[in-house]
Structures are given as structure tokens and as C-alpha cells.
Design a protein that fits this description.
Four copies of one chain form a homotetramer. Chain A has 325 residues and is an alpha/beta fold. Chain A is built from eleven helices and ten strands. Chain A has one domain: Divalent-metal-dependent TIM barrel enzymes (TIM Barrel, Alpha-Beta Barrel), CATH 3.20.20. The two termini of chain A are 20 Å apart. Chains in contact: A-B, A-C, A-D, B-C, B-D, C-D.
Chain lengths: 325, 325, 325, 325
């Protein structure tokens, strides 16, 4: 692998025990943050690390040298608005002003923290802000709370980007900030330059989106801030290795990221329950690198003509010849 | 049934032979428009009729007395941007400027037509504006075309509302204007008062939306213009009789329409392949009326408290007692 | 509630902290088995308790008096072939003969144990016997292993029923024993009187089955041994309170259980992450009782005529009048 | 392409106008059977033709020379139990003995017909034998009818194979013979050597099956009789060109067909609404040929070791290197 590898990142949670509800303790032993960073460095192809605040760290001044010691950079910090039972009925959308304010304050502290880490971005995944049953919540006031809270967070400091990560379900049966369209509507409505969207490929796929199309739509409004790569079988956030199910869509997504001039991180968000996480990362990057190389060799002129004509059989011919051995 | 019935509408296509790909000629014989209107009047509970322009009529001056003869009103006119092979690769998004302009002109003529019919609204369902295969189209230029075309249509005359009807798939495997969030983003981005959204309950459900939440979100931005009622099994636009699958969500949707102050039509969009369409309409209205009556009797104060607390078990108790015999 | 309540059971895991991958420690504190049984008794409507062997108990002679102390009975014992990382690549289907034999021996010990408990049944949920990625396993040898293992378990002692619980996915992206048809094929192929099927309503729904139809099919072959009640949104095993999403299908399922002469337990398998489990059980039983009462009052003769004619609108009319207030 | 091409077949319906419910007349003009056969011959890579009896032909003695004239063979004849409104509430499962007998007689006449055509197989796709709404039918008697009818058909003459083609939905919202497991259960229960299963890859995928696993399971019981190739997005029978969505599963399926010793036809069942059907067939065969060639070059020994260990990352490495350029 070459210099391309510089842009790859990974969530440290990829190196967690990968617990799930039938095996909460997970499929492997727990590692310290230092051990996780060491493993990430051991992939030899990943430079960026995504951490959760405050789950992974509380004091950025202590974290900074630790990350640097392994030759890594902080690519993004997600704010933990989902991994504690206090958020079980919502964080930024909570009907309880105290809870809502606690969530907002956590975001602000996170924003201050990332600046110290030399990173200019936080991400908000509102995984608990939703509902499980029909009639469980008042959608109107919850949408109003979401919009107002994000506005307050975005306004806190303009030098830090706020990435909204959408996902249609899990751990709630319905998450409000669920699709690219909802995330874009909210980001546009908030109307701040530093509020945009995190496109998680698997989240897009489980919402029956074509990830490349979602990227193009976000980019059209200047809201494509960051991407997570992974894969799944279309119904659930399986968090598999990129390209192992949706090969064509993954190729297309990587092709479009370059076409759209996206120059941010390519970050891995996976749950390798039964796999060695280092191997999972290496295979992920190899899959991505291979597909990027293929994408770059595609005949642009032919593609333009075929797409102009919506010529599916011509495109299938072109792709088979360009992609398959 | 009572005066409530006044607000019910139906698409005349409900009275079509209901052809599908394995039986294109359909499950029953074809009727003339006059015969269809007669059947609609025979339901004795439906006042509004939705027609397709120009499939169902070309000359509004001839249509108007025909509709009036049966004591009906035109509740909406959908522009046929999907039912002719010339739109097979898109209408308002087409890469072919000639096709795109033809689509835009058709919308404008439709807007002029509805005014003559005493109706102030057209709907645009961009069912062919999408793609079937990965890599088939250039998403960016197509989104730009969609936005520009809708803007031009909306600007044509401010006295006619333009309703964007979203749907995630069929007849394309992917339709661009697919979800409530995308429709809202586009409507907001166009930024005209007369451009809003048609919420088809079945389309919402097949996109894993909660229809009531979609209504609340659209309403928050003043974009909830019109609703279609029907039901399905969550994966496809089965176009079944309302409330026959998603009872709780249908009840909730009707409850929220009143809560949001929606005072428009309650229009039926179904494909009763094997059912008598008159019976299907009557059962639909009876289901809706029954659920509206139940919704109105719900204890608002209790609901507010339960929703404030996201109290699912309390809500389930309340609903069982209020809804089931 | 009346004597009907006698047949209700519940899995003790309903009273677990309900951990999931984003909150492995769960939404509430851990309880001892004794505390869980106490809570179950506190529902005052549940008699049967399902336990996991050996997770919940190792020594049946110690368990028996504990269960009896709370006035409960053991309705079923599931063998833990999924909740330990040693099964991560399969238990009864494992390519490793040692693992496979360990699984088989565990089943046999469980069978001996249930007899001591005055229960005549174990259930096998092969949640880890599957695959996550295409090409990951050799399907043929795994199916052969599944069949041979189940045969050996079933043959171990004829006085204990062996219930195969099918589920299409989770924790693997694909579980081999996934659908009613596969479970029935395997049970029939094993060809033992004491090998049958556990029908979990939520598992049926997430496989796009109609649970009543699955029950009827199993019953036709004498393989309907036990049922789990719960609900979900059709895509995932949300493990919600029964009847809160699929009201009509739940009613139909309860109607068919009586029609088929099913006289076994009605057991609750839920994951009430954010709900009080006692309240969740009480609401479940109330929903079920209400629907059973409604089902019993349905006009059988009319139903027969309507079903003879596949008359959907007639049935909808009948159901609305019989079910809704 | 080489001699491999000899085994390819196609349904003549691929050359239909491809009508659907929004455009029943279809996207292209209607062709005579002769014209369809001419187009099939023009693909220069397809030898087998699947026809529908009696829709495509009534008199086999007239059909035989027509097919031969184009150098084609009849690979399979499907009995039309779905494309006429008389079957709208079921054919072999109908509650109406007259309808049921008519369906059975049609199958028998079809069996006689195929023998005259030098083909030894009919296929039964029971697309109308199901239900649209909860409570619409009596599942028990319908399953009994399905089993009894298939038994009668299978017993009619042992020299003709009867292939059961399963599909989970469309045109009914629920088809009884829906999954590989149900089809296998029924075929096994009927217990005749000449009754087996047609595996349509798209139908398997829309039922969340892995097609290779379904093939292996059927083969284990000697019931894998015939295959249809196509692709879709997992939720609906999109009938796309094979390998254009599920590349890995298609490769795996082709790999397994050879591993299982399947030596029957590779038949295309697609609906190329907007594509030239000749081009769609040629691209399909090229995709399949390419994937078969890749599959044959896979390192069997390595695969065995990796599958023995369920080693996903190892397999992903092997596949990327073997498949992608």
C-alpha cells in the first residue's frame, strides 16, 4: 500500500470486546485505550483514530501525547449521547430540560476538547433520541428540541465542525435523525456553516439509500463532512468489512467521493465480533485501496455517455471488464 | 357515518383493472371515467376525486361538469410523469433537456387546468426519476435538475400548490425523491410557499418511517399539504386498505393529523387487485372513521404525561383500553 | 384476569439488565435468579418460567425448590448454545468435533436436568450456527452436522421433547435454522416424535412469515411444540410487548392456536430494555387475554364463509366490528 | 465465450413488453413468439428456452419445429397458474374444487406436452396461492390442498419432473410456497422422486436466503432440480441482470452449483423493463461466465481450510485477490 493510506481512520470501539445482547461480555477480552491504540498502529495502514468523549478519555491533555506516541492523529471525536442509561429516552431531544442541557454541555466540553487535540470536529449520533413503540413520544416537541439543541451546539464555537450521524434504528426501534434527508433537512434548517453530516455507509444502506447518491446530495448543499465505511446485508447495521456485501455500491461510493472532491478521512466503523480487529482493519483498507485504484482507472468519458443515456447494460459491460479478473 | 365523511377523497385509479406485471390486463374489466365516477359516488362516503392529467382528462372544461354531475369535487390532480415510456429514464430530472422541458410544460398546463377545475393543487410523483442499477446515473446533475425543475414549476403560478409525493422505489429500484427527509430538503431548498409535500402513508411505511412522525416533521416546516391513506406490510407499496396491517400507526397518524391542525383531504390511494373497489373504499372510510372517533376520545392529559415520560407500558395500557373491545 | 392466566410463561432473561452492544452493561441493575423469580411471581399472572441451562442453573435439585417456593413451574429449559464465545462459530454444526460433542453433551445433560425439574422439554436455539459473510462456511457439511447432532440429541431420551427454535439472523448475519420451513424440514427429516419446533412470533415475523400460518403448517406435521410471544417491526427481533405492532397477526395467531388445539404454554420472550419488566409482562398478558377473548367471540360460521371466498373486505368489516371500540 | 454457453436458458417472458402496474402496456412493443425466439437465437449464447403453457403455446406439435428452427431447445415449461384472474384466489390450493381440478388438469396436460417437446420437466410457481390480508384464508385447508394437488400431479407420470418454484410474495402479499424450507418440506412430504424444487436466485435473496446455502440444502435431499438466475436489492423481485447487486453471493452460488454436481440448465429469469432484452441476456451470460471461470480457479484447499476455521478475514483476502483486478 502507498501514501493513499494516510487518510484512513478507525473507531477505537472496533477494538472493543464486541459485546451484544446475547453475549454482553463480548467475544474477546477488554483492552485498555493504550492497547487499542497499539493495535491500531499495528495495522500499519491507519493514521486516524476516532474516540468517544468522555467514554474513551476525559482529559484531552493526557490523551494527546498518548495518541501521538503511536504516530496517530485524532480524526474525530464522537460525543457519548447513547452509551449511558441516563440518555435512554433521549439526549438532545429529551423532554427533561436538565437531561437536554447536560447533553448540550457535554457537546460543548467535547468541542473544547477536540481543539486541544488538534482536531476540528465532533460527531453527534443521536441513537437514543427516538422511540420504540407507536404513540410513545410527542414527535413535534422532540423535533423542536433536536433542532434547538443542535443550533446551540453549533453556535458554541464556529471553529469546530459538528457532524450529525444519522441512522434509522438501533438501539431504538426508530431513531428520529434517521436518514440522509432528515439529517440534511436539519443541518440546512440550523443554517450554520459548521453543522454538517456524517455519512456512515452502513447506515445509508440499511435505510435503502445508495451511499454515493447520499454523498452527492449532501455535497450539493455543502454538508458532506465525514464518512464511515463498513457494510451490511441491507436490514441491519451489521458493521461488516467494507465491500464484502455491497461491492458495486462501495466502488461507486469511493468513485463519487473523489468526484465530489471529498478530501476528508476514510474512517472504519465496524463490529468485528468474531474477527481479529487488526486483520479486519487491514482487509478493509485493502478492499478500499483496491476499489479506489479500480475507480480511478474507469473510463470517465464512457461513463459520462452511458450515464447520460441511463444505459444499464453498457455500464454493466464496462464494470465487469474494469473490475473482475 | 356523519359529516366527517366530507373530507374523503380517492384516486380514480383505484377503479382501474389493477393490472400488474403477471397479469397486465388486470383482475377486472376496464371502466370509462364516467363509470369510475359513478362508482365513487356509489360509495356514498367519498366527496373528492383525484385524477391524473392528462391520462384521465385533457380538457378541464369537459371534466368539470362530469365531476359535478356526480356531486364530486376534484381534490387533487397528479401530473403523469411516470405512466409513459418517454419518462422511463426520468422526467423532471432527465438528462435530455427536451424531455425535461416537456415534463415541466406538462406540469404548467396541469396547473392551469386545476384552476379551471376549482382545485388549487397538483401533485408530482417522480416515480421514474431514479435508477435501477448502481452506477447507472449521475446523481449530482439529476438532483440539480430536480431542484431546478421544481423551482420553475412552483414559480409558474403562486395560486396553485405543488405537492411532492415521495416514494423510495417502484417502478425504479431507487427513486431519488424517496423519503420524507429528501422531499422536505428539496421543498425547503426550493423555498416557495406553494411547494410542499404529499404524505402517502404506505410510502412512509415502506421507508420505515412512522407516518405520524413524518407528518409532524413536515408540519413543523409548513410543508404538509396533502395525505394519501393506505397500508402495506412494510417492504412494498402493497396499497392495501388503511388500518388493516398497521393499526396502531394508522390510529396515531389520524390522531396527529388533527393535533397538527391538518384540514385537507383524506384521500385513498389503493390497488384493490382482487377486491370490489367500492367495498374497498367503504371499508377504508369505516376504518378511518372508527379510528378518528377513538383518537378523539383519547385522554389528552394522560397522553401528555405518558409521552413526557416515554412511558411505553403506560401507553400500551391506555391504548388497549381505549381501542380494543 | 381469570384462570386463563395459568398457561403464561416467561423467560427469566426478560428480567436481565437488557444489555446491548452500545450499552453492554444494560439499562438496569443485575438481579439474582431468586430476585428474578420473585419479580415473575409479582406479575400475578405468570405461572411458568423458562430458564437457560447452564447459565441460570447447573444443579436442578437446587433449582426445583427455589422455583416452587414462588409458586412457579419450569415451562421450558433452553440449552445455552449461543451465549459463550466457544460457540462463536457454531455449536451443533461446528466443524470441530470436540465443540460439536460438547454441545451435544450439554443438550443431553439438560434433558436429564429437565426431567428432575418436572418439565419434559428442552429448546435449542442455534443462534451461532450460521455465518456472517458470503463464502465463510461449507453449508453442506454444516447442514449434515446439524441434522446428525439433533438426531443424536433427540434419540438420547424419548421422554423429553426437543424444540428447535428458528430465527433468521442475530447474532450471526445468517443463521442456518432460520425459518419455519427449514425447521420443519429438519424436524421431519430427523423423524423422531420428540423433535419439534418452537414458534417464536417475532422470529416468524422477521422472516416475513404470518405466525398463524407457520403454526398451522407445523401443526399439520405434528411439530408445533411451544410458542414464544413478542412483537417487532418486521426487520429485526425487537422483542417488544405482544400485539403492540402486529395487532391483527397477533389476534390471528391466538385464534389459530386454539383452532389447532394447541394446549401448551404461552411464553413471553421480550427484551424490555427501558421498561419495567413486571409492567411489560403484565401488559403482555393483558394484551393476550384481551385478544383471546375477542378471538373466542368471533363468528366462526361467518369466518368460514368469508375465508372460503377469500373475501377480504368482508373480513375487514367483521374484524373492525369485533375488535375495535 | 466457449462451450460453457451451451447450458444457458431464458424465459421467453424476458422478451415481453415488461408491463407493470403503472405502465401495464409495458416499455416496449409486443412480439410474437416467433420474434421472441429469433431474439433469443440472436443472443448467440443461449440454447434453452422456457415457455409458459398454455400462454405461450397450446399445441406442442406446432411449437416443436418452431423452437428447433432457431436451433433452440425447450429447457422447461412453466404451467400458468398465476396469469389469469380465475386463479386470483389460488390454483392448486383453491377452496373451490372445480378451480383446483382445473389447475391439476392443466398441469397434467402440460406434463404430456413437455414429453412431446423432448423436455422432461414442468415448473409450478404458485404465485396466486396465498393471501393479501391477515385472516383472509384458512391456512390449514390450503396447505392440505397444496400437498394433495402436488401429489396428484407428481403421480400422474413419473417420467416428468415437477419443479416447485418458491417465492415469498408478489402478486400476493404472502405466497404460501414462499421459502426454500417450505418448498423442501412439501417436496419431501410428497415423497416422490420426480417432485423437486426450482431455485430462483432472486426469490432466495428476497427471502433473506443465501442462494448457495439454499442450493446445498436442497441438494442434500436430492431436490435441486433447476435454477433461475437474476438479481435484486433484497426486498423485492427486481429481476435484474445476475451479479449486478449480489456479486459475492452470485459467485458463491455458481461455485456451489459445480461443487454440488448440478448439471442442469442455467436459466435467466429477468424483467429488463428499460433494457434491450438481447443485451440483458448477453450481459447476464458474460457475468455468469466470468464468475464461473473465477470460481473454478479458486484455491480449493485454501478454501477448505478457511471454511473449516470460519476464517472470514482470510476468505476476504482470498476473494479480493481472486476476483478483483
Amino acid at each position: 500500500m502507498t501514501m493513499e493510506e494516510k487518510k484512513y481512520g478507525v473507531l477505537v470501539s472496533v477494538f472493543s470486546p464486541c459485546g451484544e445482547r446475547f453475549l454482553p461480555a463480548g467475544y474477546k477480552s477488554d483492552l485498555s485505550l493504550e492497547e487499542k491504540l497499539e493495535r491500531i498502529a499495528a495495522t500499519e495502514c491507519i493514521l486516524g483514530v476516532e474516540l468517544d468523549y468522555p467514554t474513551d478519555f476525559e482529559d484531552p491533555t493526557k490523551l494527546k501525547p498518548l495518541v501521538a506516541r503511536f504516530g496517530l492523529q485524532v480524526s474525530n471525536v464522537e460525543i457519548d449521547l447513547f452509551g449511558h442509561s441516563k440518555w435512554q429516552y433521549g439526549s438532545l431531544s429529551s423532554t427533561d430540560k436538565k437531561v437536554r442541557n447536560e447533553a448540550i454541555e457535554l457537546c460543548k466540553r467535547g468541542m473544547d476538547g477536540v481543539v486541544e487535540l488538534g482536531c476540528n470536529q465532533i460527531s453527534l449520533w443521536l441513537g437514543q433520541d427516538g422511540f420504540d413503540y407507536p404513540m410513545q413520544v410527542d414527535y413535534r416537541s422532540r423535533w423542536q428540541n433536536i433542532i434547538a439543541s443542535i443550533k446551540e451546539v453549533g453556535n458554541y464555537r464556529a471553529d469546530v465542525n459538528v457532524c450529525l450521524e444519522y441512522k434509522v434504528k438501533e438501539p431504538r426501534t426508530h431513531i428520529q435523525l434517521g436518514t440522509v434527508g432528515k439529517a440534511l433537512s436539519i443541518a440546512n434548517s440550523v443554517g450554520l456553516k459548521n453543522v454538517g453530516v456524517m455519512l456512515d455507509v452502513g447506515h445509508a444502506i440499511m435505510a435503502y439509500e445508495n451511499p454515493a447518491e447520499s454523498a452527492a446530495l449532501l455535497s450539493e448543499f455543502g454538508r458532506l463532512f465525514y464518512v464511515h465505511l463498513n457494510d451490511n446485508f441491507g436490514f441491519w447495521d451489521d458493521d461488516l468489512i467494507p465491500g464484502t456485501v455491497h461491492l458495486w455500491e462501495t466502488l461507486e461510493f469511493l468513485y463519487w467521493l473523489e468526484k465530489l472532491g471529498y478530501d476528508g478521512w476514510y474512517s472504519l466503523d465496524m463490529f468485528p465480533y468474531r474477527e481479529d480487529p487488526v486483520a479486519a482493519c487491514v482487509q478493509s483498507v485493502k478492499n478500499i485501496e483496491t476499489l479506489i485504484e479500480i475507480a480511478r482507472k474507469l473510463d470517465q468519458e464512457k461513463i459520462n455517455l452511458l450515464q447520460e443515456a441511463s444505459n444499464a447494460t453498457g455500464m454493466i459491460d464496462l464494470l465487469r471488464n474494469a473490475v473482475l479478473k
